[in-house]
Each structure stands twice: as C-alpha cells, then as structure tokens.
Amino acid sequence: MTLPVHHRPTRLLERTFPTLSWGEPAASEIDDLFERMGRFLEAASMAPTVSGIWSPLADMHETDDAYVVEAELPGIKREDIDVEVSGRELYVTGEFKEREREGVLRRGTRRTGRFEYRALLPVEVKAEEVKANLADGVLTVTVPKTQAAKPRHVEITEA
C-alpha cells in the first residue's frame, strides 16, 4: 500500500482562516485529530492483513528472456523462505520469526509472522529453470520464459 506524504510546515493553529472564526478549542481539536490520523495511517501501513499474513514490498520487471522479481525480506533467513512456481503463478511464502529480547519492547514497527507474495505471470514459464537468490535482504527470483513467449522478429517479404 502506498501512502501519501504529508508535509505540514505549520500547525493548524498557526494558520489564518479569514472567513472562519474558529476559537482555540476547535482548532486544537482538529489539530489533534490530524496528529492521531497520521499515527493511525503510519501504524496501518505496517500492520499485517486481517488474516495475519503480510506481503513484502516487491518489484517485478520483464527482460527478453525472463521475469525478475525482487522482494524485500530483510532479516529473514534463506531456510525460512519458500519459492514455488505453478503454471503461470509465482508464490513466495515464509515466516519472519520474532527474536527474543531482553527488557520491554517500547515500540515495534517491524513485521513478523507469516508472509506471502503472489504474482500471476503473463505467459507460461520454464518452472524447472527458476532461480532464486537472497543477498542483502533482497530475494531475487528469475523466472525464464518459454520459447513461445520470447518476442521474435518476423521478416516481411515481397509477393
């Protein structure tokens, strides 16, 4: 989910409203509402879905030979990730296990638990030749296209 960036150089109380004569209490309540909504949107963007499964941020791009998916999975071990290709679907699933900590956690914004990324590929692919690599917290999955999926230049002849 992409959220808009909220730039607020001044507080609502410092703005002037020439046609409205809001008093201090009303403007203060609205300003407080803006603050709470900002915190809510920030927390919602980090929260798992209703089912408790979250989806990692990922990009998919196409080359002449393959589809390449790059998914952000920082801190997740290779053995905790599963990559499957079935027909035209790519599934990346796994779990980010929360580590034990000493003391009291005061604020937690890192996602933990089960995750899932699904992509429907436009054409049939060579499932047996799919490669996956995890480096620097980024999982790169390369899914080769079948021969029929590759673009081919057709020469036009005169009749």
How would you sum up this structure, described in words?
It is a single chain. With 159 residues, this protein is an alpha+beta fold. It has a domain at 58-99 and 111-149: Sandwich (Immunoglobulin-like), CATH 2.60.40.790. It has 1 helix and 7 strands, in the order H-E-E-E-E-E-E-E. The strands form 2 sheets. It has a 4-stranded antiparallel β-sheet with strand order 1-2-7-6, with no helix packed on it. Residues 6-14 have low confidence and may be disordered.
Number of helices: 1
Rounded radius of gyration (Å): 24 Å
* CATH class call of the domain at 58-99 and 111-149: Mainly Beta
**CATH topology description of the domain at 58-99 and 111-149:** Immunoglobulin-like
Low-confidence stretches: 6-14
Mean pLDDT across every amino acid position: 78
Mind summarizing the main beta sheet?
4 strands, antiparallel
Shape: elongated
Q: Which class best fits the helix and strand makeup?
A: alpha+beta
Write the layout of secondary structure elements.
Layout: H1 24-46, E1 58-62, E2 66-72, E3 81-86, E4 89-96, E5 113-120, E6 131-135, E7 138-144
Antiparallel strand pairs: 1-2, 2-7, 3-4, 4-5, 6-7
Write a short abstract of this structure.
With about 160 residues, this protein is α+β, with helices and mostly antiparallel strands. It is built from one helix and seven strands, in the order αβββββββ. The chain has a domain at about 60-100 and about 110-150: Immunoglobulin-like, CATH 2.60.40.790.
